[in-house]
Specification:
The protein has 223 residues and is mainly α. Helix content is 79%, strand content 0%. The chain crosses the membrane at residues 43-63, 75-98, 110-129, 184-205.
Length: 223
């Protein structure tokens, strides 16, 4: 797969959305468990935070590249909203459909396995959406065009008319600018595996503690 192909760009864009959604989902679940929120409120909170983190991950590189925060926010709102919305609807639907997943705590392996399944399904639900938008110069194509425009801004003043025409044309074409999506993929996998390992350890400890207490109670009764 060529890293500049529409498929590669769509995969990278979807992974960016997936990263923000995963962070928002887990953060919302943590807050919901700490404060004892209902499943509905926890889903709403996670849904909202997924958008916050998703937009932030896309906006920060643009701001670092010299774009104002307001302009960057407007750009990512146009670029990422449909993708994040698709991903969140599917992700939460899968989590809700898996028996016991929403009620499982963060130290329950069921939660992490369910989250991994939900994110996997959500990725493949959002990918064709991103592919469709990018092929038509919309969605993440707008962000890529802005990156490309910023990278060549030093030449803009020499050929203002030509560059403006070129930039507008790029907004209507599939971008060729590529992203290295491996760090995002590794981060998501490591995050989910870390949570699963911790939950398995906690479950094992709880079981051992329960068996120890049960043995102590039995011994005390026999005496």
């Amino acid at each position: 797969m060529h890293k500049n192909s529409p498929h590669a760009v769509a995969v990278a864009a979807t992974l960016h959305c997936l990263t923000g959604c995963a962070i928002g989902e887990i953060t919302g679940m943590v807050i919901g468990e700490i404060f004892g929120l209902t499943n509905e409120l926890t889903i709403l909170l996670s849904f909202t935070l997924a958008f916050v983190f998703g937009y932030t991950l896309s906006a920060l590189p643009l701001v670092r590249g010299g774009l104002s925060f307001g302009a960057a926010l407007r750009l990512v709102l146009a670029a990422d909203t449909v993708s994040i919305l698709t991903m969140e609807l599917v992700d939460n639907a899968v989590m809700y459909a898996i028996p016991g997943a929403m009620g499982a705590g963060l130290v329950n392996p069921l939660f992490w396995v369910s989250m991994a399944v939900a994110l996997f399904v959500a990725f493949w639900a959002a990918y064709p959406v991103n592919r469709y938008l990018i092929a038509r110069g919309k969605g993440h194509a707008l962000v890529h065009a802005q990156h490309d425009h910023g990278a060549h801004s030093e030449h803009h003043h020499e050929h203002a008319g030509h560059k403006e025409h070129h930039h507008m044309a790029r907004l209507e074409q599939t971008p060729t600018h590529s992203m290295d999506n491996r760090p995002l993929l590794y981060a998501i996998i490591a995050f989910l595996l870390g949570g699963l390992v911790v939950s398995l350890a906690a479950t094992t400890f709880d079981r051992a503690e329960y068996e120890h207490l049960q043995h102590a109670a039995t011994t005390s009764t026999q005496r």
